[in-house]
Amino acid sequence: MTRVSLISSSAELRDRLQPLTGSTAFSPAGGTGDPASLLAQFTGLPPEVLIMDCRADANGKLALAAVLIETYPATGVLLVSDRPGDLALPAMRVGVQDILPPYATLAEFGDAVEAVASATRNRVAQLTEVPAEVTRVVPAGQVVSVMSPKGGVGKTTVATNIAVGLAQRAPGSTVIVDLDVQFGDVASGLDLEPHHFLADVVHGAARYDAVVMKTFLTQHKSGLYAICAPNVPSDADKITADDISHLLHGLAAEFRYVVIDTAPGMSETTLAALDATTDLILLSSMDVPGIRGLRKELDTIRELELTLDSRRVVLNFADHKGLLSVADVEATIGTRVDLALPRSKAALTSVNQGIPLLQSGVRDPLTKHLRNLVDRIATPTRPGRTVESPVAGAKPSPQPASRWQLFKKKGTVAA
What we know:
By secondary structure, this protein is an alpha/beta fold. Helix content is 42%, strand content 17%.
């Protein structure tokens, strides 16, 4: 029998649900302001389902439910509310599985409790899955990472234009992720005012439920979805490489294209993104410090032995009157340059307005070159990627070291 507890100030509701809850029904007064003190009131094992009456202080109960679900994933939450429609979206975002009105029958509460308990068990099973020894081919979206060893080279401008261009081909199929977790500019580059940020997507219920995750995305006029960098730089400390790996795996399963605007250099989160990347855009400005940094970055990528479907070297702010030519750059970095983006006055206006050139369609040489880059990325067919298929009871296969571990072991620095 499912262990059920109730938090409610209503004596009538406590009495009516007593066949479900037994003696574990409490008034919200007295130490139920946080999950630890709340669960301390339960004798024996914690409940599998906690029914929370949120007719009073709905916001406080939702906040408590969010912390409870994050801290105790084996406990599911069922809310009681006389305005379930208003609470449906915020409740789903924190991981609440269901909401019932207070006048629901005992049988309806019983059915909802069993459904919540089943969903919670499935979630816990996903958290404790053992990797399998066998593999299968799973269709997955392209993960396009735009990287640069240094800042100020137009990386966000290129990433947002790629994302808008891909979204125009198939609206709703593309998401851009701002992985410059401290000072990302994707929101500004797309003229967005997001209500939710990267930290909201990688934590809580969104981490385990694709439907919940999508409610945290910000939609752009072009049909593009965006996950913007935290609006408070200190929130970056809460985001780990494992969070990023998990997020990108989930996004690639839901979207045809995942575009990543990385932070300059090779941080832990950038290396986590590289592990998931199929299409890598290496961007540099045409100056000596930028090209030297690009050469170091290429050397590091070679040492990490990355397997990519595609890798392209792109030069920004190209100027045939400059001291460096494309041939000079190729001789320095030891590989060919795939595309040179010209200097453009329209680009500055685009950045200041938050309207990518591929969105506005401004007639400019840079617009044509960016469109060409999108065409190269959007190939008609892509091979499926091989991923491990989880099988209960299978022995775990040896796990390779992460890019971050290899990076630290080699002692490589990409400036």
